[in-house]
Specification:
322 residues; mainly beta; single chain; 1 helix
Length: 322
């Protein structure tokens, strides 16, 4: 017959044993230490100077003093002495210092709830996978501020990569917004989830907005200088006007039809008296009349010349581009 219990190593009373109370009390001391186990802290190495009766520590590596040579054991102070117990696989203990529950496994005290950092994946109401490492199945999702602002960031590795939000129907993409393969913000639509048609492009360079058959923007041009505006297509119409609250705008405004392809052409449909049409002539900054604005067309661009006496801002809108 064994002298100890198999799980908690409690000493058994033996036949014809004298002073049975000693063995019985030793078993009670172990039970008192191990049942509903709580430790002052994990990975302890230095004994406290004045331990309390029943105080228990989970020892780490390199224990010193009265704990020397007892690494990895439970140290329980009982009857003015330290009682050392080998923890068994699967034992659980509450750490008062850590405020957390741990389980003994593989020779270490591990968190019952693993650290929520560097997870391989997380599924909420569903299962994550290697591609969708965060997966949420829910009627709604809420992201709120922690006192002031709240910003959601989607980052991509390089200019040719994609950072976007895709709206699907039956797991097939129908709308996408974001940076899709370049640095311009796009809104795209699809009928089948494969072929995508841009319906709005906000160009990062210059801050212009491009809609099929429509593109608008502004450009600042210094005095006696030329501003260059890339055309969204080889031809179409463009409306141009001076944007300045201190000077008359209408005389420097106009509507033109243009061809910026191999056959350069600029046709005036309507314009103010202070806006000159220079056709396909390259502007230099002093080509037009002093005090006026000028417009010309070159291959793939429009040129705007400012001779109005100071830096000016021009607004343009391309129509019916192709």
């Amino acid at each position: 017959m064994s002298s100890q219990s198999p799980s908690l190593s409690l000493p058994y009373l033996q036949p014809s044993q004298a002073q049975k109370h000693v063995t019985h009390n030793e078993a009670l001391r172990r039970l008192d230490a191990l049942v509903q186990l709580g430790v002052a802290g994990f990975e302890a190495t230095t004994p406290p100077a004045t331990p309390a009766e029943g105080e228990t520590h989970a020892l780490g590596t390199g224990a010193t003093g009265a704990w020397a040579g007892q690494d990895g054991k439970l140290a329980c102070f009982s009857d003015a002495a330290w009682l050392f117990i080998d923890p068994q696989e699967g034992w659980r203990a509450w750490g008062h210092q850590e405020g957390a529950l741990r389980v003994f496994s593989g020779g270490s005290w591990l968190a019952v709830v693993p650290p929520l950092q560097n997870l391989a994946g997380l599924g909420v109401g569903t299962t994550s996978d290697a591609t969708n490492r965060l997966a949420v199945a829910s009627d709604a999702a809420l992201f709120s501020h922690a006192g002031n602002d709240h910003r959601l960031t989607i980052n991509k590795a390089g200019a040719g990569d994609t950072a976007s939000v895709v709206m699907q129907s039956g797991w097939s993409g129908r709308a996408e917004l974001g940076l899709a393969g370049n640095e311009d913000f796009q809104v795209r639509l699809s009928a089948d989830g494969s072929a995508w048609t841009p319906v709005l492009i906000l160009r990062q360079a210059g801050g212009t907005a491009l809609v099929p058959c429509l593109m608008s923007g502004t450009i600042d041009v210094g005095n006696d200088e030329v501003g260059y505006v890339p055309t969204p297509g080889a031809g179409g119409m463009v409306a141009l006007n001076l944007v300045d609250p201190d000077y008359p705008q209408a005389p420097h405004s106009g509507l033109f039809s243009y061809d910026a392809g191999p056959s350069l052409s600029l046709l005036t449909l309507a314009k103010g008296v202070s806006l000159e049409d220079h056709g396909s002539t390259a502007l230099t900054g002093t080509t037009g009349t002093d005090g006026r604005s000028s417009l010309a067309v070159r291959l793939g661009e429009l040129q705007i010349e400012n001779r109005h006496g100071g830096p000016r801002r021009y607004a343009y809108t391309f129509l019916n581009t192709y």
